[in-house]
Amino acid sequence: MPRIKELRPQYMVRDIGSNIVGLMFRKGITQTKLASELGITQGGLHYKLMNNAFTYKDLIIIFSQLGLTDEEILRLMKL
User: Fold this and answer.
1) How far apart are alpha carbons 34 and 16 in whole angstroms?
2) Tens-digit pLDDT profile for residues 4-47
3) What angle, 0 to 180 degrees and rounded to 10, lies between the N-to-C axes of helices 56-66 and 31-38?
4) Angle made by CA atoms 42, 23, 46, in degrees to the nearest 5
5) CA dist 40 to 6, 10, 32, Å?
6) pTM higher than 0.70, yes or no?
7) Pseudo-torsion of CA 46, 48, 51, 52, nearest 10°?
């Protein structure tokens, strides 16, 4: 079933974790390194990535560690 415009916000929320994982891979950042920056365990980060359980503070740290520009952040977060 194709993604329709009305459901896009749901898909964007569901996809944020997988988008972050892809960016981590491209930038060569491990879950262990990112988890230590967040002050949690690697397992805790894995849980957050799979369940999209990020706080605003988490996202600020993640975007900073990934070295994203404002434009990239907007593209990633745009509904």
Assistant:
1) 16
2) 666 555 555 567 888 899 999 999 999 999 999 999 999 999 99
3) 130
4) 20
5) 35, 27, 9
6) yes
7) -130
